[in-house]
C-alpha cells in the first residue's frame, strides 16, 4: 500500500504550518545574517589591507591582519546565527575562551614570537639590509618574518633569532641614520710638535672627499698618556663610507707621520735602579 495513501494530509499540513510559523522567520533571519556577514568579511579586510599599504606596512603584516580580521568577522557571524535559533552563545563563548586560553598557554612561546614579529613588521625599527646589534648578536638583517629574524654576520654566518628576544631587547641600528662619525685616537711623542701633527691630520681629512664639511671634522688633544700625547679625531661621513674611510684614514695618518718625522711611540716605562751600599 502506498505510504502517501495512509498519511493524514491534514496533519502534515498543520505540522508544516507550525514549523514555518515557529522557525521560518529565524531561518530567514539567519540567512540574512550569513549573507551580510559574508559581505562584511570580504570588504572589511580589503579596507584594512588598503590602509596598511598606504602606511607602507610590510606585506606579511598586511596579510596576517587581513586574515585575522576576516576570521574574527566569520566567528561573530556564526555566533549571531546560533543566537538566532535560541542557542545560548554565552556558554559557547565561555568554552571557546577556555579552549583559547589553554591553547595560548601551551603555545605562549610561539605566540610571543608572533606578537614580536607583528610589532617588528609594523613599527619597523629594523629593515632588510640594516646592520644591527640586537640580543647580543651583530649582523646584517636578511629577513624579518612573523616568527624569526635572520641576520648574517660579517663573515656571512647565519643567525636566527626568535622575534620575542629581538623585540624585547635594545636594538642598535647602525644603518638607521644616513651619516655616521668615525672616531680615531692617534698618539704622538712628547717631543713632537702638537700643532704640526694636528694640521697634518686636518689636511688629510679635508683632502678626502668622503669626509663631510658639516658637521666639521675635529682634531683635539684629548689625553696626556703614559707614553704619548693622544689626539681624538672625529670625522663625519655617509654611513656607507664608514669602514672604508676609517681604514684608509688610519693608514694615511701613519704614512704622513712617517714622512714628517712625527713619532708614534711604543709603550714605555722608566725603571729606576736603586743601588744599596753594602
Commentary on this structure:
The structure is a single chain. The protein has 278 residues and is an alpha+beta fold. It folds into 3 domains: 99 residues, Orthogonal Bundle (Helix Hairpins); 49 residues, SH3 type barrels (Roll), CATH 2.30.30; 81 residues, 2-Layer Sandwich (Alpha-Beta Plaits), CATH 3.30.70.100. Helix content is 53%, strand content 19%. The chain is built from 8 helices and 8 strands; from the N terminus they run H-H-H-H-H-E-E-E-E-H-E-E-H-E-E-H. The strands form 2 sheets. The chain has a 5-stranded antiparallel beta sheet. Strands 6-8-7 form a 3-stranded antiparallel beta sheet, with helices on one face. Strand 7 and strand 8 form a beta hairpin. Helix 2 packs antiparallel against helix 3. It starts with a helix and ends in a 19-residue tail after the last helix. The mean pLDDT is 83.
Number of domains: 3
The low-confidence parts are none
Task: Indicate the CATH architecture of the largest domain.
Answer: Orthogonal Bundle
Radius of gyration: 37 Å
What can be said about the biggest beta sheet? Answer: 5 strands, antiparallel
Percent helix range: 40-55%
At the third CATH level, what is the topology name of the largest domain?
A: Helix Hairpins
Question: What integer is the average pLDDT?
Answer: 83
Strand portion: 15-25%
Q: What's the overall geometry? A: rod-shaped
Structural class by sheet pairing and helices = alpha+beta
- Total number of helical segments? 8
* SSE run: HHHHHEEEEHEEHEEH
The first-to-last residue Cα distance is 145 Å
Provide the spatial order of strands within the biggest beta sheet: 4-3-2-1-5
Report the count of strand segments.
8
CATH class of the largest domain: Mainly Alpha
Amino acid at each position: 500500500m502506498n505510504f502517501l495513501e495512509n498519511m493524514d494530509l491534514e496533519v502534515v499540513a498543520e505540522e508544516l504550518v507550525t514549523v514555518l510559523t515557529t522557525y521560518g522567520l529565524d531561518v530567514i533571519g539567519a540567512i540574512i545574517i550569513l549573507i551580510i556577514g559574508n559581505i562584511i568579511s570580504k570588504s572589511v579586510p580589503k579596507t584594512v589591507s588598503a590602509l596598511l599599504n598606504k602606511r607602507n606596512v610590510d606585506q606579511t603584516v598586511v596579510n596576517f591582519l587581513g586574515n585575522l580580521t576576516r576570521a574574527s568577522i566569520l566567528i561573530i557571524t556564526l555566533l549571531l546565527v546560533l543566537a538566532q535559533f535560541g542557542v545560548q552563545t554565552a556558554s559557547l563563548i565561555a568554552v571557546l575562551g577556555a579552549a583559547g586560553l589553554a591553547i595560548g598557554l601551551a603555545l605562549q612561546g610561539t605566540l610571543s614570537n608572533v606578537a614580536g614579529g607583528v610589532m617588528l613588521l609594523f613599527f619597523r625599527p629594523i629593515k632588510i639590509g640594516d646592520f644591527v646589534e640586537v640580543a647580543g648578536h651583530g649582523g646584517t638583517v636578511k629577513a624579518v618574518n612573523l616568527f624569526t629574524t635572520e641576520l648574517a654576520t660579517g663573515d656571512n654566518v647565519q643567525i636566527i633569532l626568535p622575534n620575542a628576544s629581538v623585540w624585547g631587547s635594545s636594538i642598535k641600528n647602525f644603518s638607521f641614520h644616513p651619516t655616521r662619525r668615525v672616531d680615531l685616537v692617534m698618539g704622538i711623542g712628547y717631543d713632537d710638535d702638537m700643532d704640526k701633527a694636528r694640521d697634518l691630520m686636518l689636511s688629510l681629512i679635508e683632502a678626502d672627499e668622503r669626509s663631510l664639511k658639516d658637521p666639521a671634522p675635529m682634531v683635539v688633544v684629548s689625553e696626556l698618556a703614559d707614553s704619548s700625547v693622544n689626539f681624538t679625531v672625529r670625522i663625519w661621513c655617509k654611513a656607507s663610507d664608514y669602514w672604508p674611510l676609517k681604514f684608509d684614514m688610519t693608514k694615511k695618518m701613519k704614512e704622513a707621520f712617517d714622512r714628517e718625522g712625527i713619532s708614534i711611540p711604543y709603550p714605555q716605562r722608566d725603571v729606576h735602579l736603586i743601588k744599596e751600599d753594602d
